[in-house]
Amino acid sequence: MLTPFHLAIQVRDLEEAREFYGNRLGLPQGRSSDHWIDYNLFGHQLVVHLNPNIGRDGQVNQHANHVDGHGVPVPHFGVVLTMDDWEVFAEKLRKLGTQFVIEPYIRFKGQPGEQATLFFLDPSGNALEFKAFADIESQLFAV
Fold first, then answer.
1. Is the per-residue pLDDT at 138 higher than 80?
2. Which Gene3D superfamilies does its entry note (predicted)?
């Protein structure tokens, strides 16, 4: 059994983060203070921490690495979902009018590690990736 991970990220504004993670993405909120908010990210603990000094333009710094013909933003985080859950989540994001960094598609098609993936940014510029495999156990770490 996998145990939940804990990830803490910086955001420029807590109310903006609450609107994005809580209302837009629909993540259940846990504990909070004037400086941070806990969220349930598909069974994992995501904590957004206020940093009003994020970058000159109010965005966290990003870099992109070439993967399967796309500029993948680094750093990024997300969750590996079942294929059914990924399809439902991708459709929800489309209906919300999400501006994708990388549109939902199948990466490494026909190769070891074939996966569904999508990328988008939160308002502070944190990159999120959600992916899925037809068979998580055999494909997640396939070489």
1. yes
2. 2,3-Dihydroxybiphenyl 1,2-Dioxygenase, domain 1
Q: Which domains does the chain have, with CATH numbers?
A: 1-52 (3.10.180.10), 63-143 (3.10.180.10)
Distances (CA, A) of 17 to 46, 57, 65, 121: 12, 17, 26, 12
Q: How far apart are CA 125 and CA 57, in angstroms?
A: 10
Structure token digits, residue 78: 């997300």
The overall pTM is greater than 0.70:
yes
Contact partners, residue 125, CB within 8 Å, separation at least 6: 54, 55, 58, 59, 60, 61, 62
Q: What whole-number percentage of the chain has pLDDT above 70?
A: 99
Residue keyed to tokens 């990328």: 119
First to last CA, the chain: 22
pLDDT confidence of residue 56: 66
Phi/psi zone of residue 142: left (φ > 0), alpha (ψ -120 to 50 degrees), beta? beta
Task: Tell the residue number behind the tokens 């809580």, with chain if given.
Answer: 22
Strands (E), 83-137: 100-107, 115-121, 127-133
